Amino acid sequence: MPNLHIALVHLAQGQPVTSSQAIADGTQYPHKSVIQLVRQHRADLEEFGRLAFEMRTLKTPGGTQQREVALLNEPQATLLLTYMRNSAIVKQFKKALVKAFFELRQRQSAPAAPEAISISKDEYIELLRAKVQCLEGTPAAGLPRPKRPNYPPLTAAERARIRALAAQGLSNGAIARQTGRSNATISLLAREVREGKA
Length: 198
What we know:
By secondary structure, the chain is α+β, with helices and mostly antiparallel strands. It has nine helices and five strands. The protein folds into two domains: about 5-135, no CATH class; about 155-195. The N and C termini lie far apart (about 70 Å).
């Protein structure tokens, strides 16, 4: 049985690039969301070179469609991935993409450079396992659970403000948005106010 390879990085005009479609597939984001992220941060991305776009034919149940795909060099792809939520699947994909760019650069310096770098079937299966575990809410093997934000302790002034806002009848979510504190922190202080303990 032939080895399955999934192309992540290829050469475009002699430069290693990846595509918004490869990023969407690897992070399990919809392509529409990835291309919107590219457009939203285009100025930032173009600090690392001019963005390129190409039209690709996409087969759908309703027929064929044309899809605009962005081509990103390594710094652009790295920056784009920093704008995504750092889930287990995104972390796995970041590692695979860094490895693919590195291997293509290594092979590029060799006499016969390939047109694409792929990941092996085993690496692809491991990436799929990480996706499944992410969807099920369990961390992939060897990956720690995401840490909750570490908020600094409340000051006396913050406590007084939270209690005052709770006394005015604001919801916990509204107080959290105004103060920049977590709902859990707000709920403890707001409950004291509402129960007459504060």
